Amino acid sequence: MNDAAQQDDGTQDGDEGSMSRRSVLWTTAAVTGAGLGLGGLSSGTAAAATPTRSPETTPAAQAAAPKRQGRTMVGVPFDRRSTVRVGIVGLGNRGGSMIDLFLAVTGVQVVAVCDPVKAKAERAAAKVTAAGQPAPAVYTNGEDDYENLCKRGDIDFVYVATPWDFHFEMAKTAMLNGKHVGVECPIALQLDQLWELVDLSERTRRHCMQLENCCYGRNEMRVLRMAHAGLFGDLLHGAGAYNHDLRGLMFDPGYYEGPWRRLWHTRLRGDLYPNHGFGPVANYMDINRGDRAVSITSVGSPSLGLAEYREKNMPAGDPSWKETYIESDRTISLVQTAKGRVIRLEHDVSTPHPYSRINSLGGTKGVFEDYPARIYIEPDHTNDSWGDFAKYAQWDHWLWKEHANPPGGHGGMDYMLVFRLMQCMRLGLVPDFDVYDAATWTSPVPLSHLSIKAKGAPQQIPDFTRGEWKKARSGMDSENPEKA
Fold it and tell me: How far is the CA of 3 from the CAs of 7, 409, 442, in angstroms?
């Protein structure tokens, strides 16, 4: 298995002895899910009741935009600053490695770190001092101590890398305390939460971003620039996925602290992790920047993979035997855009297969497909034979030309994300993506579940921009601001 890819899916946070609040969150989601755009959730036991679907989950209600409470955050730049002061919440697999990248970027100071597991926070603090920075404040007093970190007056940006259950509350708390916030995938799991984050970002004038590292992959950024230069002609279709065999990791008590990742397979049937596939293709097609995602139709296979793995590998009496899995082993969704384009999304972490994010884009002049990378565009290629994508290196984004051998995991995309975000904050630039992108890229989580429950019926994707998508604007296809 690709070790770098293993860190895509959040982080460890907390321990087996601190699961009570998390359990309350899960139970609350199961009870209230019908009114939050999640339909009939299961609590993960065979005897669980299925809540009655409420009017809020109808397609019309899903698409309706609540009244705007503030002003749009489209095109809003950061305030310029010489040093970006960062607080990091969650220091397990993901946060514990990403702190190295924040420390590697000039003009960034890690002011505070937070994790209920004291040893993790102390290891992170030691990294900060080893990098020559002052010792950070350390917050380890339970799962709510992040609130005290967010209240500090000397933090500009809060980075959240915790289990999914906490993402929404932590993003919300950061903004309410005047901080910009970046969250690992997914940023929230319910439609009403996505709308609340949009409204909070607009009211507080603070950016709330889904830190989608795959958008910064070398191939993804090259395809982005080629697409915007017209090499693929008029864009027609794209595809993205998170197909990654996580069975061993989800049953490994030493990888995730607690079964939080696996337990989501007892609650939702749809695409639990759409962002890595959706984000890059959305960028190619200028979603929220001249086009928008309008609807999603999803189907799912039976849920067999995790139960079969458990039967072969877990001893009798293991707590996992109390779990009933409902998450489709393979979820396939089709997203339609306002311009009529089609985006295919896939999710599969429960069956054996090589890692793939698909990452495909097609237009009237040709097509790119990844895993492995190959291309066919006219007039460069003929006779229905794939061409060598490496020959298009001249289209690399300036980030990859400036940083040819970046540090960190996932082939360097993690560093590119941190470097560029911190650059935008230092120079007072508009971020590459915003809260509207975060909400759009995450909306397939609840909506794919509803579509599968409705036997593939289309679900409307809300216009989180409230009409601003009609205005063309720049995104990730940027120029180097320090060489302009």
Answer: 7, 9, 24
